[in-house]
Amino acid sequence: DSSATVKKLIHSVDKIKRKMANLSPEHFDLAEELYESGGDTIGYVKATDAKDFKNGINKKYIALSYIRTGRMHVDDISATVIHELSHLILNTEDYAYSICMDKQAPGLFTPWSVKELHTYARGKNSVPLNNAETLSRIILLIYYSESNLPAHKKAYSLYWESGSNKILAFHRMEPGQNPRINSPELTRKSHALRVIGGHMVI
To answer: pTM above 0.85?
Structure first.
């Protein structure tokens, strides 16, 4: 709602974009489930790694559960990676989430998690762009606004129809009837990210 917020957002997005250019499969640590952070965890980074990442040290930074991400739409996987990168690059915090894995309705942001984000962003002393999930979802929304794909156009229009909870209250993209990874055993054997056509593929 202010030029200062817009300026900060542009600066943050630009910084993430520049750092992403150096991202490679070697920076990802894949596992079936990330039990050390809780059974529902999709991904995480260690706060102590931020300095090494900024200095360009080549090591694993982003841990991902390939079983959980394998059941997500690629757009939501991208948002998860951006969420984690914002921790490394911008020192963002985890104040509020738009996805609650244990209560999540299929293909939708849950009303309570949307409300949580909305309440946080409107708080007197909060700084919304310092919240990793808020930032990653804003970036995804910007992407939807520029896309010509019918599914993205629908998601973008639903955002504007979501009333008082409109802050990031748009439908998630459906991953399809089957998980993207339908053979955990096969994936377990490869246990690596590949680059195909310039895109990282789990």
So the answer is: no
Only one residue has tokens 């979501």, namely 162
Other CB atoms within a 10 A radius of the CB of residue 191 amount to 10
| pLDDT value for 85 | 93
CA distance 90 to 60: 18
Contact 124, 148 (CB under 8 A): no
Q: Where does 63-148 have alpha helices with state H?
A: 66-69, 74-90, 111-121, 132-146
Burial (Cβ within 10 Å: 0-12, 13-18, ≥19) of residue 198: exposed
Q: Which whole-number Å values give the CA distances from 66 to 29, 34, 122, 132, 160, in the listed order?
A: 10, 9, 34, 21, 32
b/e code 121-153 from CB counts within 10 Å (16+ = b): beeeeeebbbbbbbbbbbbbbeebeeeeeeebe
Task: Give pLDDT < 70 ranges for the chain.
Answer: 1, 37-39, 99-115, 159-202
Residue 84 near residue 44, CB atoms below 8 Å = yes
Identify which of 78, 86, 34 has the alpha carbon closest to the alpha carbon of residue 172: 78
Spatial distance between the Cα atoms of 78 and 60, rounded to a whole number of angstroms = 17
Distances (CA, A) of 146 to 143, 149, 150: 5, 9, 12
Give the pLDDT confidence score for residue 21 in this predicted structure.
86
**Bridge partners (DSSP) listed for residue 197:** none
